[in-house]
Design goal:
alpha/beta; Quinone Oxidoreductase, Chain A, domain 1; 2 domains; seven-stranded mixed sheet; 12 helices; globular
């Protein structure tokens, strides 16, 4: 925790934040020292933040979270806000700018950064995972990751640009034009992927999920067919609707234990699977199916910096991102929002720090 003796007047000495403080399930609303800004850094007053599946992993304290998170840690990475102040050596951002930050903080110097792969930087720090996140009134980030938002974009929508970018990155990696596409997962990113796949020219889109109200949103966003896997076998359904061939592309967006093996059954020989969902524990996969079907199995994480942001901005006119926003709370009521996400009663919950 840091203090800044010469902090701007609008920043109080203590701010509220939602933080993971104990190595067990849960989190807490705490008082926290506001962040300081050093050379090349920007202080953002967070206007809106939203709850993501990664926050749920950390809140639940699953195996992944236990192996990754160092306590104490402010949660959150999806956000939108306004630049409050800037440190020395900041040249392209100024106080008052309406911004969102790329949540993957890259070094800019390693081999991967220098070959166009900054989103998988060897020294990556992720907001809300490796450094303090966005469930707070203020956030400090390097100028290099700041994205200036369209002033017409409401903060509640701008805060969803990060998961929307996930969907765009996965769909672009899958190369979906004129292809049949199955999306496994009815979380926010999976639902948004249906809209992006349709906008990108997919021949047909199926969304596989477990909750009817979410699957209806997938239909509204662009899915041609929906499959509720709690009562219908997605493998037989897709095979039947493709004359036994299977889908050209499967996007695994759920992280469920059964999803990746299911994707291998659904994809046609010579097809492509994009793995995006994060399982809560290690999985065993029958790789002989990958070999004998000659399937391409590719991973996808984050967004290409900043190519995906430009693509996402262009897709906004074709995908109704607001459909996935179901609930809004002040930060002080974050627990209500988290509980709704855990019960799967909400899709995307937006929190308002300072409200």
């Amino acid at each position: 925790m840091h203090r800044l003796d010469t902090f701007p007047e609008r920043v109080e000495n203590i701010v509220q934040a939602v933080a993971k403080t104990r190595p067990e399930p849960g989190a807490a609303l705490v008082e926290w020292d506001p962040p300081s800004v050093g050379p090349g850094e920007v202080l953002i007053r967070v206007a809106a933040a939203s709850i993501c599946g990664t926050d749920v992993h950390i809140y639940s304290w699953d195996n992944w979270a236990q192996s990754r998170i160092k306590l104490p840690q402010i949660l959150g990475h999806e956000h939108a806000g306004y630049v409050e102040t800037v440190g020395p050596e900041v040249h392209h951002v100024q106080p008052g700018d309406y911004v969102t930050a790329e949540t993957h903080i890259y070094c800019g110097r390693c081999y991967l950064c220098q070959t166009g792969n900054a989103h998988i930087c060897r020294h990556m720090e992720i907001l809300g995972v490796d450094r303090d996140g966005t469930f707070a009134e203020y956030l400090a980030v390097p100028e290099s990751v700041v994205w200036k938002n369209d002033p017409q974009l409401a903060p509640r929508v701008a805060t969803v640009m990060e998961p929307f970018g996930n969907a765009v990155h996965v769909v672009m990696k899958a190369e979906v034009p004129a292809k049949t596409v199955v999306i496994i997962g009815d979380g926010p990113t999976g639902l948004l992927a249906a809209g992006v796949a349709r906008a990108a020219g997919a021949a047909a889109v199926w969304t596989v999920g477990l909750l009817d109200y979410r699957l209806q949103i997938a239909s509204q966003l662009g899915a041609d067919s929906i499959v509720n896997a709690s009562g219908e076998d997605p493998v037989s359904t897709v095979k039947r609707q493709t004359d036994g061939l299977g889908a050209d592309v499967v996007l695994e967006m759920s992280g469920a234990d059964v999803a990746l093996p299911q994707a291998l059954e659904i994809v046609r020989p010579g097809g492509r699977i994009i793995a995006f969902g994060i399982p809560s524990r290690p999985l065993t996969l029958n790789t002989s199916d990958v070999v004998f079907k000659e399937v391409e199995l590719l991973g996808a994480v984050g967004r290409r910096i900043f190519a995906t942001w430009h693509h996402s901005q262009r897709f906004l006119s074709q995908v109704d991102v607001e459909r996935v926003i179901t609930d809004e709370f002040p930060l002080s009521r974050w627990q209500e929002g988290m509980d709704k996400v855990l019960r799967r009663e909400a899709i995307k919950v937006v929190l308002y720090p300072g409200a």
